[in-house]
Structure prediction request, 235 residues.
Amino acid sequence: MDSVRTLYLIPARGGSKGIPNKNIKPFCGESLVSRAVRQALDCASPDDSIFVSTDSPEIAKEATRHGLKIPFLRPDDLASDTASTYSVILHVLDEFKKADRNFDRVVLLQPTSPFRTNEDIKTAEKLWNPDIDMVVSVTESKSNPYYNLFETSPDGFLKISKGNGDFNRRQDAPKVWEYNGAVYVMTVDALLKSPISKFKKIIPFEMPAYRSIDLDTPQDWLIAESLFPQICGVR
Prediction:
């Protein structure tokens, strides 16, 4: 494959209802933004670009401590908790295009996945090719629509969500996956054609459940901080 133009994008807005200021709150001695930036720096080639999309001058300052340039902040309409990641990506791509900088793929690294490793990123990148829409990190879901997920039928009774309810053990049911939020490797052409939710050609990259914790609540944070030294060590 010829040289691939990659944008490492770290989305990190300032507001957070679940964990206030979580993106710059120290986690095992290092902010989540700092950790994500350091991983991008470790994985990027010299010709790649790394950018932190944020509405917060404080988060932008945290990024510049690593030598990144943050020439623009995220507009207010993309800084709410209802703004989509897709809209944020398009905004960044458009701003870079104005500066005559175009890319083949976007590697999205959410700061709230502290158990993601450099090797996870590199493995996902190796699975990517320009003919697909996305490579995404997943973990096997504990809840399975063939086994223990149900829907309410018109008569008010529960029915198995998928299939005929023939599986007596979860191990025998087809595996189902959930996005864990750690790594997304997205083709720019695909992004410009349709939202991420409409992607059809998606390749999964499996990560174990114990490294798929996404920090959303104070309880998540406490659990992750207690486990992190044992799983990843403290730098």
Notes: The mean pLDDT is 93. The beta strands are 6-11, 26-27, 30-31, 49-53, 105-108, 134-140, 150-152, 158-160, 177-187, 202-206. The first strand starts at residue 6 and ends at 11. The radius of gyration is 19 Å.
